[in-house]
UniProtKB/TrEMBL annotation:
Coiled-coil annotated residue ranges, if any: none
UniProt enzyme class: transferase
Protein name (database record): Methyltransferase
Organism of origin: Phaeobacter piscinae
Protein family per UniProt: Belongs to the trimethylamine methyltransferase family.
Domain of life (superkingdom): Bacteria
Chain segments annotated as transmembrane: none
Positions of the UniProt region annotated as Disordered: 1-21
Pfam family, one: MTTB
């Protein structure tokens, strides 16, 4: 290789990457909604799908689901379902008739229409970590209760990374804000620090109604425009086994009546809140999901609904939840088959049980994320930043996870498996022949900067070069990136009048007391 060629090749490496990213902290992949171009893994044969479906239907018919919501009980009675106390028995014909009314695909339009999200089909969307009460980063090196500042910083990462498509629940619970007004402050932060799709917790009518109104204001929408199509969503968890609580069903009914999207995700841990067998746990999860989806479709046919899975197992020695296990992966794949059987979009998660962003955290999360890909998942919750089974949010873990997410996006790009004449590269092979190399030929030079995935966090230097550069381990590199991203963060634009209207709404609702609490 000539000196000129070597210099040009080096210019396309780290130096070239630095030139391409300009003033940006990292060179990341552009915003896009990836399509899963692989066929899903289907561990169940037709008889297996039929067996789980029949099991779920028999649970609904023979055992029933408890709904701790008086309005839901009255709706089920009106629909002709058998209601005994707070237990509802649903026959399979009714359930399947209702579930068939749910769309297999829909969109969510946030305040920035360039961030519109197609949900369903072969689209796969990634969301940030949601709802941990605690926080950990390397500067603290300790598990601490979440604060508003930490929540804001994680929201900035949510906005910054193009591979994150939606802003889920609070990326860490800011317990320094009183629960009565926490939703007002955090939603204000979410709507001003990000322009991605919003989530509302279904935890009381005030929180749900306030969030819907704030999303409407930030989008500059009339009430009619807001209700014409989904602009936000909620996610609820059943209280396994076989129970739905009052506030979550109430919140979903409110969103359904205004045309917003609903994700129903039972939290079925095999061996604790569900049978120890994965098929039994999946059947129970399906029954819990479909009972709620049937309710929402009866109330407003065509309500956008997603069937979620959070089926994993517990450690039978300690009772602690485990994630990213072989059983978790299989249950996710099985639920994907069932979601396609019912014609519903699916949600799963990027989760782990590790306590810090170490090797265990990454292999468990990678297992979870690839299970999402293999299952045909459409919405991946907690795709970046989750630790300790959902009890800790970590910015280092967030940045490490986004490296995996970008790799998944690159893996899905059709050009990676292109088979056109330039991809087969017969002329390049002819040019090199039997006794050369491909580094310096024009075919390589034309493609070297885009041919392969370029990591922003991985370090591909050999040991000696890595050691000479300070021997910085991956979590520390992620920590340094976190600090730089936050220091240079710029919020997305928001119309001044809309921002002021949000501020006025928050101030008024605070003066009214926000949402009631018992403390």
């Amino acid at each position: 290789m000539t000196t000129e060629t070597r210099t040009r090749k080096r210019g396309g490496g780290r130096a070239g990457a630095a030139a391409r990213r300009g003033d940006a902290v990292i060179e990341q992949m552009p915003w896009s909604v990836p399509r899963n171009i692989d066929r899903p893994i289907e561990p169940l044969g037709p008889e297996g799908v039929a067996a789980i479906h029949d099991g779920a239907m028999r649970i609904l018919e023979e055992i029933g689901i408890v709904f701790l919501n008086d309005e839901a009980l009255e709706i089920f009675k009106e629909a002709g379902c058998k209601v005994v106390g707070d237990r509802v028995h649903l026959d399979r014909e009714f359930v399947m008739e209702m579930v068939a009314k749910a769309p297999s695909e829909f969109t969510i339009t946030p305040r920035n229409p360039d961030r519109i999200l197609p949900v369903g089909g072969n689209h796969i969307l990634f969301g940030n970590v949601s709802s941990p009460p605690n926080y950990w980063d390397m500067s603290l090196n300790a598990k601490v209760a979440g604060t508003r500042e930490q929540c804001q910083n994680l929201l900035k990462l949510t906005q910054y990374f193009n591979c994150i498509h939606f802003a889920g629940g609070y990326p860490v619970e800011p317990v320094d804000i009183h629960a009565s007004v926490r939703h007002l402050d955090v939603l204000y932060d979410k709507l001003t620090l990000t322009d991605k799709a919003m989530h509302a917790y279904s935890l009381g009518k005030e929180r749900v109604e306030d969030v819907m109104e704030m999303v409407r204001i930030a989008g500059g929408l009339t009430h009619e425009e807001f209700e014409a199509r989904p602009h936000m969503y909620t996610n609820i968890n059943s209280t396994s086994p076989l129970k739905h609580d009052q506030p979550m069903i109430d919140g979903c009914l409110r969103l359904a009546r205004r045309g917003q999207a609903i994700v129903v995700t039972p939290f079925t841990l095999a061996g604790a809140m569900a049978p120890v067998t994965m098929s039994g746990a999946v059947a129970q999860s399906i029954a819990e999901s479909l009972s709620a989806i049937a309710l929402f479709q009866y109330v407003r046919p065509g309500t956008p609904c997603v069937i979620g899975t959070f089926t994993s197992n517990v450690d039978m020695k300690s009772g602690a939840p485990a994630f990213g296990t072989p059983e978790y992966m299989r249950s996710t794949q099985m639920t994907g088959q069932m979601a396609r059987h019912y014609g519903l979009p699916m949600r799963s998660s990027g989760v782990c049980a590790a306590n810090v962003p170490d090797g265990q955290a990454m292999w468990e999360t990678s297992n979870s994320l690839w299970a999402a890909v293999q299952s045909g998942t459409n919405m991946v919750y907690h795709a970046a930043g989750w630790l300790e089974g959902g009890l800790i949010a970590s910015p280092e873990k967030f940045i490490m996870d986004c490296e995996i997410l970008q790799q998944i996006q690159r893996y899905m790009q059709p050009e990676v498996i292109g088979t056109g004449p330039e991809d087969i590269a017969l002329e390049a092979i002819r040019e090199v022949g039997n006794d050369g190399h491909f580094f310096g030929i024009q075919h390589t030079q034309d493609r070297y900067s885009t041919a392969f995935y370029q990591p922003y966090l991985s370090d591909w230097r050999n040991y000696e070069a890595w050691e000479a550069a300070g021997a910085v381990w991956t979590p520390e590199r992620a920590h340094n990136l976190f600090k730089e991203i936050i220091a240079r963060f710029e919020a997305p634009p928001l119309d001044v009048a809309r921002r002021e209207a949000l501020e006025d709404f928050v101030a008024r609702r605070k003066s009214e007391g926000g949402a009631p609490t018992d403390f």
